[in-house]
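Thread: quick sanity check before group meeting

JM: Hey all, I'm pulling together slides for Thursday and realized we never actually wrote out the predicted structure for the chain we discussed last week. Dropping the sequence here so it's in one place. If anyone has concerns about the input, flag it before I start.
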Amino acid sequence: MREINEIDFEKEVLTGTNVLVDFYSTECPPCEALAPKLESLEALFGQEIKFLKIFRQGNRDLADKLGVKSSPTLLFYQDGEEVSGRLTGGIKRAEIVRELKPILGKERVTKIMKTQKPTVVHADVAILGAGPGGLTAGLYLCQARINTVLVDIALPGGNVSTTHMVSNYPGFIEPQPGYLLSHNMSEQTKRCGTTYRVAVDVTHVDLEKKEITIDGQETIKAKRIIIATGTSPNRIGIPGEQEFKGQGISYCATCDAKYFHDKEVVVIGGGNSAIEEADFISKFASKITIVHQFDQLQANKTAQEKAFANPKISFLFSHEPRAFKKAGDKMVVEVEDLKTKELKTLTSDGIFVFIGQKPNLEMFGNLIELDQWGYIKTDEDMRTNIGGVFAVGDVGSKKYRQITTAIADGTIAAIAITREIG
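JM (edit): ok, ran it. Output follows.
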């Protein structure tokens, strides 16, 4: 892609026909993940759309004028006017193609996309998932000079990247921001030599053939596969939950707590995540009501003591939510007293749900042997029932799910693979 600066902007963009502009930064993992996607799309659409990039820090006045606050940010122009929607962060290839359709027309984009040639990449190991387990496996494998490709539908870091502070990771006296800890893990693995395919769509996985297709275009053929896809937040499954997700209901305190400054919120759950995240939310909110189905918390004692000592936090034990509703700009949760069966309503500015996690296994079909809770069974070397397929981290059947246990899993799987094919 050709690079321009603020001086060139009017000539190259505002007087152009169809233009895509990428505001990028250096030392920016999402920018690095985006670059090859833009290059491949420029090869397809370069005759129809001008692809340009602008260094955001070196052109701050222009970025501020356009309201560009983060990197990367993609802007789309047609005849000098900004069109389509802006894309930021971990941008997927499919999202870019979607925004090109209003500019070129759906039929034209579809026709051009059909001309792309499938590509095949060969690797010794393909890792699905870039959380602590996957990153550690990648680190050990690349240090053993084993050709490894790490694939993730999001950016590296897994759930750690959305954790406020991590206080029990060895080697750090002070608690570490989750995003920083995961960033450092990722950079270490990347610097070692592991190849990344992140913020991609995984369109097909064949565990028996050891093939992974991403973005419907590139197939990775490997000798071994490590599943490290982690978990996602459980949903309660009551009326209003899906409807108001992201519109009053959140599953990530790190992402959304800042929007509830001096406001009242309800937290659903009583385990470690619920109590620790409630403490973080209390840095912003004025009042927090924790709703828990049992008559006592399940969180660790340290977290409990901190929560009970927090004047902003109150508790509603032996209650379960039955429905979420909206009342103007307020959120309402209908809860049932499990002892008296009485229904009550709690009104707040927002609701956070922390009731555990479920394994991310949708892409794998039903070939993998699972335990009674739906997690992957493995042996002591992290092998699954499918030859050449390993599972590490939270997706596996285990007693404890922590950053340190995921890292241990990744280490074990990598060493086992190294002994097999190294």
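AS: nice. The chain has a mean pLDDT of 95. The first strand starts at residue 2 and ends at 4.
JM: adding both to the slides.
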